[in-house]
Design a protein that fits this description.
The protein has helices at about 5-25, 30-50, 50-65, 70-80, 85-90, 95-120, 125-130, 135-160. The chain has about 170 residues and is mostly helical. The protein has one domain: Arp2/3 complex 21 kDa subunit ARPC3, CATH 1.10.1760. The longest helix has 29 residues, at about 135-160. It is globular and about 50 Å long.
Length: about 170
Amino acid sequence: MDTKYLARTAMLTALGVVLISLSGMLPTARIALAGMAGILPAVIVVRDGPGRAYLLFVASALLAALVAPDKGSVLLYALFFGHYPMAKCYIERLGKLVLEWALKLILCNSVVTLCTAAFSMFFTGEFEALGGLLPVVYAVTNIAFVVYDIGFSKLIAFYVKRMPVDL
């Protein structure tokens, strides 16, 4: 590993931990800040490949779990946003748009199912009251995910076009 890679990864890890911590302190911006932290591994994916980006994801999730005041924000990052740049890279290598979107939506819905199952296990009474709204949760999440993915793709394309490769 070279020094540039380590320095870049360390700085992005620290920034990710700050964003995740802020997302717990600013509840109205929780999803936006966790999403911004989830964009950071994309920098490493573009520069060094998805394999090395997992180091940033794991380090920022573990450090945030230790220092962030709101563990829900850490879970939001770890389950939804942090791993997505690497998954997106691998999925988009397939080169078949319909298959790519199917896999991305399967991934998104798997995470939602995992979260609702965990919620149900820990808060049974509250979850049963929301049972009728579950299709709405899936629909809204899928719409938000598609918008996020399209915006994320445009942001990555902008980054690739504007940033010099030798940084």
